[in-house]
Amino acid sequence: MSHLFRGVRLINGVADAPLAEVDVFVEGERICSVLPHGTGGPVPEGVKVIDGSGKTLLPGLIDCHVHYTFDPAVADFSANMARSDLDVAASATTQARRALGAGVTSARSAGAQRNIDIWLRDAINVGQTPGPRLQAAGLAIGITGGHGHMFGIEADGEVEFVRAVRRQVRDGADVIKIIASEAAMLTTTGLRPGAAVFGRAEMCEAEVHAVVEHAHRLERRVLAHAQGSAAVINAARGGADSVEHAFLADEAAIECLAEHSATLVPTLVVTDVNRSMPGLSPVQRERQGLIERLHRASCERAIALGVTMATGTDTGEPGVTADLLWREIVLLHDHGASAMDAVKAATSNAAALLGMDDSVGTIEPGKLADLVLVSGDPMLDLATLAHPELVMQGGRVYRPERVSDE
After folding, report:
1. What is the tens place of the pLDDT at every residue in 288-342?
2. Which stretches of 70-148 are assigned E, i.e. beta strand?
3. What is the structure's pLDDT at 185?
4. Distance between CA atoms of 270 and 292, rounded to whole angstroms?
5. Strand, coil or helix: 121
6. 61-323 belongs to CATH 3.30.300.350
7. Sign of the torsion formed by the C-alpha atoms of 251, 325, 95 and 107
8. CATH C-level class of 2-60+361-398
9. At what angle do helices 116-125 and 85-101 cross, to 10 degrees?
10. Domain residues of the chain, as ranges?
11. Confidence of residue 278 (pLDDT cuts 50, 70, 90)
12. 2-60+361-398 and 61-323 have identical folds
């Protein structure tokens, strides 16, 4: 079916300002033309016209850090990991549908128990369930006994890390997720007993480099969980394509990110949510507030230094549901990015990070018709992104309230 978005305000993911009064014609799954309003001639018979008056059309949003197989309603990490495959698959499809309804048309899974995100990717691809186009990492790779060891692959030394990369590629992973540091939070039970979790480095630079070198040889990109400064430096110097979180990264670590042209996926939503989680003790609440403030400072440094930013929510963490990417965009803006740069972090920047920029991330002829229509002007109020009127993925229209094909 063909669609014409008529007279929309256009944020195309390329220009630094919205374009007024634009007609966007979609034929089948792709964008056919982008023209000034009224210059495209008569509307062909059978084309569904969507009135864009007072509305803004954006590229489909991209979430570069999700865990759809984790249930955000289950705060106990061990209990979350112990759920049956059927339970995990059911909640994963629910989160994927929720993300699509919120305008997320593509996403990168940053790790899943038992490679279930690979199944989810395939189910979405063949149309068994609606959801974002998904790049799946499957099992994350980290050191023996390190952060996330209970749902990933344990490896020590360059040889074992390379073997783990090969295993994940064999099992269908699109990307490789490594755990380069401890966590910086302790809001749930089920983590290592007595662990002093302050984001300290767990992988050395040589191990990161071995993973990256081999993954790139196998045409897979690498995302590195790195929260403290030493881990961020190891990940950047080791060549990771993106560094995730960087909650506690100091000025030297952020400068290293800039020097090595690594993309930062700060996952600001997770610390924003964690500081106000119910059930925290006064000590935990104080600690989460401190981490959030340090995280803010780290992100502000990165934006000021011009580090390339891409959005990720860490969906699946306690309280972090799949419909919060709009909030990540707002937080980027609050931390110093312009409104347009914050949107680009969720569109063109994210597409480039995922290696999908030849098909998504911008509104240009020939690209896949992944589009989000919202009321008003996000450049005046980014919170308008929280309530899409319409989501299109590959030319298929989804109504956010029910996420079903028309």
Report:
1. 888 899 999 999 999 999 999 999 999 999 999 999 999 999 999 999 999 999 9
2. 104-109, 133-135, 141-142
3. 59
4. 9
5. helix
6. no
7. negative
8. mainly beta
9. 50
10. 2-60+361-398, 61-323
11. confident
12. no
